[in-house]
Amino acid sequence: MADARGLVKRRAGARLWLSAGWLVLLVLVALFAPLLAPQDPLMQDLFAARLPPFWASGADPNFPLGTDSLGRDVLSRIMYGARVALSVALIAGILTCVIGSVLGLIAGYFRGWPDVVISRLVDIWMAFPPVLFSILLIAVMGTGLGSIIIAVVVIDWTRFARVIRAEAMSQGAMDYVASAQVSGRKRFSIMLTEILPNVMPTIVVLLTLEMGIAVIVEAILSFVNLSISTDDPTWGSMIAEGRLSIHQAWWVLVFPLIALFLTVLSLSQLGEGLKDRFDPVLR
Amino acid sequence: MSDDVIYEIENLRLSFPDMAHKPLFGAAPRIEILKGIDMRIARGDVVGIVGGSGSGKSTLGRAMIRLLEPDSGSIRFNGQDITHLEETALRPMRRRFQMIFQDPMSSLNPRQTVGSIIAGPLKLQGFDRVSARVDQALDHVGLPRRFRSRYPHELSGGQRQRVGIARAIATEPDFILADEIVSGLDVSSQAQVLNLLEQLVRELGLTLAFISHDLSVIRRLCQRTMVLYRGEVVEYRDTRALFEAPEAEYTRELLDAIPLPDLEQVWA
Amino acid sequence: MSFLTIENLNARVGTAPILRDVSLSVEAGEVRGLVGESGAGKSMIGKAVLGTLPTAVEIESGRIVLDGEDLQALKPRDRRRVIGAKAALIPQDPLTALNPSRRVGPQITNRLVDILGWTRADAGHRAAELLDEVSIPDPERVMRAYPHELSGGMRQRILIASAFAAEPKLIIADEPTTALDVTVQKQILRLIRQMQARHGTALLFVTHDLGVVSKVCQSLTVLFGGMVLEDTRVEQFFARPGHPYSAALLAATPKYTDPDASLTPVPDAVIAGVEAEIEAHDRMHGHV
């Protein structure tokens, strides 16, 4: 047993460090983009349009990952795009998590009428088609970072509420909850001290998955031109533009795609890794 | 045994909704688990409650310490009627009746250390010198004080159950309910926990209700024994008398079905 | 002749040995108890014979011979076929051993159809006969029932019927009554004994309960830490246990007929003694 656990732990460790490494790098890049970016991400130069990445012939070392059809530097745009991606991931992820988890905990542990109200609300909410819902929301609120975040939260809180409710219900049936009641602990306090720590690993996993989803949602909305103004570089809008010139300049499409892919993958791996850290049995 | 009665239970009835037979619309029918239980426990008594699955023994125990609310009948604890008391009114009384659970793995929060598990009820009930009392409780159950910083999964099954016992005795309760507390343990740790319980009963003068399906354990530990069958009391008498001359057919059946580790009778 | 012979079986998880040179045999018509506390490896032996070991467990060396066939020497497909035809399991938990979303009948007949190639109709007749044999009233109705509609004892009877269905030479019963009430346990144990005697099956009975051993077994093997400590006849064992650990286990088991006997937990010295034996064994085999 001990040996098998050790193995699991080591493997989770490598995954955790790799994905955390990528995310830390991304955060630093996003924070210091003005200092780190080799070029102004908005500066157009039609004479330097569609320059290839550094290893290809005809590359310009000032534009290491090449330029797009308007001559803007791809690397710099990815770096600035990370700012939008990370803001959406963090703010939308955390807001979704807090709202959904609190409602899920209350429904799952207190049961009774709070459960009936919250569960019905979740059921009704989930009957709306999410993509139409988000497009409608943005049509009403206008484009912008805030709208995207609200769209993610409004659509995805049900995911947390459902999973955390089920988890809280199964924890609520455990004897240590009965034992806390025998000790004279208040219901609300039992929820925080007995239930919450034991659903924490699930919350962490869901949170990181949600952050990945938020990044993807932002990209999709940029892709259909419903995100923030087209001037600000976002990964989604880069991918959308790159699609048009895929045969002449593949790098405009591929590099932001790689950044998106690595970020979403790292977030989900980080969640799995952190889950083990939160589990005292595996720690 | 004294005449000082700690528990007085009269015509206790309790039912659960039967979700398996719930009609599509409307409320589920109710299954009656306890069908009018009468019981008195005197201070200092060790009472065994025995029965098969579906006898209602655990439900009775949980009603006694008001983890469940009965439908009707009455439970008087130290003379006070607690049958339908609200949780807020029960809370200050909770230090006086404690419980030890069947499965120490699920009754000890895996995310708390042994020290904070035992300190929990003490803090909630406003005791002073919490740290000293935790040490004292660990001493009583024969666990080293350094175990305070351990997590439940780092202990053996027998040690975990000792932590459960330490938590229950820490608030110096008048009454402890022990629900199948040795049935999940190996024979060797079972003997240790039983010996410990006997010793604590002697030293601390505990009043104990001991729920078990194992008659050999009950015979050893308890002065009085209640046999339950499908929510009704079959017999409630002095343990020795009950074992030596069982009055009810069901008690005889129960005794006869126990596989004793000897060669006197082979089943074939 | 032995239906089952295990010779010097060694198994480990990672680098930790869990079975240490286990040897035992079960003769035709014999009921052998496999006794130990949790972690003794008793269930692992049953799983090794049935080929249902968890993937983390690796068999290092040793032979398992089932009715003349050396299982380790067979290709995995042939091994499964041999085991399926010659051995069967009565599992511990009658609740999870039956699929809750399928009717009982097909769950019994499947073995007959899959392993022995019977027709559905023949298998159905045989299943009804077997249910009758394990004293289930109205077998036709029970075969159409779903598991949750039946009591625990009833479900365990069905699993017993299903184990005997294909007339195996060996049945492994893995703690088959721990989930049952004592009164039901007695009926089920009697039933297993009767079926075993009638069909001449060899029975390997895995249990932690010495009381159960004394009532149903003829011989027993005592295990600790994956090592055989004692291999003896039941009469011999209860009269004069051959290993200090066996004696200590007996002394730690309460008996309602003898309430005043002092209950002695297994002394630390005895455990230390057994652990020293294990260590010596591991050193000899280069595990340390």
Name of the CATH architecture of chain A: Orthogonal Bundle
Radius of gyration of chain A: 23 Å
Structural class of chain B: alpha/beta
Structural class of chain A: mainly alpha
In the CATH scheme, the class of chain B would be Alpha Beta
Name of the CATH architecture of chain B: 3-Layer(aba) Sandwich
CATH names the topology of chain B as Rossmann fold
- CATH homologous superfamily (4th level) name of chain A: MetI-like
Strand content of chain B: 25-35%
Q: Residue share in helices of chain B? A: 25-40%
Number of helices of chain A: 10
| Shape category of chain A | elongated
Q: Give the low-confidence spans of chain A.
A: 1-9
CATH superfamily of chain B: P-loop containing nucleotide triphosphate hydrolases
| Portion in beta strands of chain A | under 5%
From the spread of the alpha carbons, the general shape of chain B counts as globular
Overall pLDDT of chain A, averaged?
Answer: 85
Order of helices and strands of chain A: HHHHHHHHHH
The largest beta-sheet of chain B arranges its strands as: 6-7-8-3-9-10
Major interchain interface with per-chain residue totals: B-C, 37 and 42 residues
Low-confidence stretches of chain B: none
Short description, anyone?
Chain A has 283 residues and is mostly helical. Helices cover 74% and strands 0% of the residues of chain A. Chain A has ten helices and no strands.
Account of the protein in words:
The complex is a heterotrimer of chains A (283), B (268) and C (288). By secondary structure, chain A is an all-alpha fold. Chain A has helices at 2-31, 33-36, 74-110, 112-126, 130-141, 145-172, 175-183, 187-223, 235-244, 251-278. Chain A is elongated and about 75 Å long. The N and C termini of chain B lie far apart (44 Å). Chain B has one domain (40-69, 81-250): Rossmann fold, CATH 3.40.50. In chain B, the strands form two sheets. Chain B has a six-stranded mixed sheet with strand order 6-7-8-3-9-10, sandwiched between helices. Chain B has a four-stranded antiparallel sheet with strand order 2-1-4-5, with helices on one face. The model of chain B has no long low-confidence stretch (mean pLDDT 91). Chain B has helices at 57-64, 87-90, 104-107, 114-124, 130-140, 157-170, 187-204, 215-221, 239-244, 249-256, and strands spanning 5-17, 30-42, 46-50, 72-77, 80-81, 97-100, 175-179, 207-212, 224-229, 232-238. Chain B is globular and about 50 Å long. In chain C, a hairpin with a 2-residue loop joins strand 1 (2-13) and strand 2. In chain C, helix 3 (104-116) runs parallel beside helix 6 (152-164) and helix 4 (120-133) crosses helix 6 (152-164). Chain C is globular, with a radius of gyration of 20 Å. The mean pLDDT of chain C is 89. Classes of the chains: A mainly alpha (283), B alpha/beta (268), C alpha/beta (288).
